[in-house]
Design brief:
With 434 residues, this protein is mostly helical. It has a domain of 178 residues. The protein contains 19 helices and no strands. Helix 1 crosses helix 16 and helix 8 packs antiparallel against helix 9. The longest helix is centred in the first third of the chain and has 32 residues. The radius of gyration is 23 Å and the shape is globular.
Length: 434
């Protein structure tokens, strides 16, 4: 009888854990991929992604922090926030500067909306950081891979049925709608999905699929981010390897490139999406037949001196959050956007945020986070929306939390209280052990 009771308890616990895993996975995938927007059509009574986020996030936060509060007076959670304080302080500094200290932050009609969006995005980051504690036990890589595959599936669906999601003619955007943002999201998810200890066949498949997805967006910035990722991937997987493995690296890279080009050729030939004038012009820049997509590139290049002139007039404090949104065209550059809106101080806070994330991942030898941070830095050159991207903020939170937990787990017990990346608190946190 006792053995039957034990077996029943074990089964119920496994089913409960499976349910928690599916719930957390579905919740995070919805917001990592922006699939939440089409999903809202099937959710009764809730019509806002913010409202749905609040409803879905509450059980996750309770599951993570309530047991810790009852057993340890939140010591584990406080350690998580303390040991990632460089990034958290950068976020809080950025938000307080934008919403309270910055003159004119709420003056522009769209500026108020920009402040609201930033506060919501910080909540995304905070919930993802907390969720990471739970995912240390449930597993985390499967979730990021699932999000990547869901987003790639929506992009390829956009190729098969042009205009389903994308807002740009002749380009696929998937759930992200904007093709350039879709390319950024694919590369950020790919950076965290693969393993950097050695080359894995499954990871090569993910890289191939991601390369096809980025190509379908026809994003030149996405192709640059793909190149940066590949340089990091082959460097880390090739470090300290034997000569034979080093020789195989360019062979694998060439095989991946040939496969991607072959599949891309088939996609171009079979999809009506690439027959449009806009797609043909972009394809010409990929093949070297042309250097620019004339109207787009001319417009963007002309924005640089305009924004620099604005910056020159209010260099230190800028014009207030959301000012650039009141202009006909945004700068398509996160660094210019922060400088014109929030001055040099705002630009420094944004750089602090990204470089703090980069330095923490480097100190913890967490290579997925290191590559992710590099892609975020590069993406800022091609879009002014990095700070608003759910995939950036949620993956940033997950990267910090996972790197914190894995570092603390790998530290010998005698040293755990003295290391800066987590201490023994991760072992004490109830969500990681039960």
């Amino acid at each position: 009888m006792r053995s039957d009771a034990r077996n029943a308890n074990r089964l119920s616990l496994r089913l409960l854990e499976l349910g928690v895993r599916l719930y957390v996975g579905l919740f995070l995938v919805l917001y990592l991929t922006d699939a939440v927007f089409p999903a809202l059509h099937y959710v009764p009574l809730v019509h806002s992604p913010v409202g749905l986020f609040g409803i879905l996030a509450i059980p996750v936060l309770v599951r993570v922090h309530w047991p810790d509060y009852r057993q340890n007076a939140l010591t584990g959670s406080l350690a998580l926030w303390r040991d990632n304080r460089q990034v958290i302080i950068a976020f809080l500094g950025l938000l307080s500067f934008l919403t309270a200290l910055e003159p004119g932050a709420n003056v522009a009609e769209r500026g108020g909306k920009a402040v609201y969006i930033l506060l919501y995005r910080f909540t995304l980051f905070f919930v993802a950081l907390s969720s990471a504690v739970l995912l240390l036990r449930l597993g985390w890589r499967w979730l990021v891979v699932a999000a990547l595959l869901v987003l790639l599936g929506s992009i390829l669906y956009d190729v098969a049925y042009p205009g389903t999601f994308s807002t740009a003619d002749g380009r696929a955007g998937g759930f992200q709608e904007n093709p350039n943002v879709a390319a950024i999201a694919v590369m950020m998810l790919l950076a965290v999905s693969v393993r950097y200890d050695r080359v894995h066949a499954g990871d090569l498949g993910l890289i191939l699929l991601a390369a096809i997805g980025v190509f379908a967006t026809l994003s030149r910035g996405g192709m640059m981010q793909l190149s940066l990722f590949l340089a990091n991937y082959f460097y880390f997987t090739g470090r300290g390897r034997r000569f034979r493995q080093l020789v195989l690296t360019p062979v694998v890279a060439a095989a991946l490139g040939a496969a991607a080009l072959g599949i891309a050729g088939q996609i171009i030939a079979s999809s009506d999406m690439f027959a449009t004038e806009n797609a043909q012009r972009r394809l010409a820049t990929f093949t070297g037949e042309d250097e620019t997509v004339y109207e787009t590139d001319t417009a963007r290049l002309s924005l640089i001196p305009q924004y620099l002139a604005l910056i020159d007039r209010h260099m230190l404090l800028g014009y207030g959050t959301g000012f650039s949104r009141s202009l006909p065209l945004g700068p398509h550059n996160s660094y210019l956007d922060f400088w014109v809106n929030n001055g040099f101080a705002g630009l420094l806070l944004y750089l602090w945020l990204l470089l703090a994330l980069l330095s923490l991942c480097w100190a913890r030898r967490f290579w997925p986070g290191l590559v992710f941070a590099q892609i975020a830095l590069l993406a800022g050159m091609f879009t002014h929306d990095v700070i608003h991207l759910g995939v950036f903020l949620m993956l940033g939170g997950l990267v910090l939390g996972i790197s914190w937990g894995t570092t603390a787990r790998a530290t010998p017990a005698g040293l755990a209280d003295r290391v800066a990346e987590g201490g023994a608190a991760v072992r004490r946190h109830p969500a990681t052990v039960a």
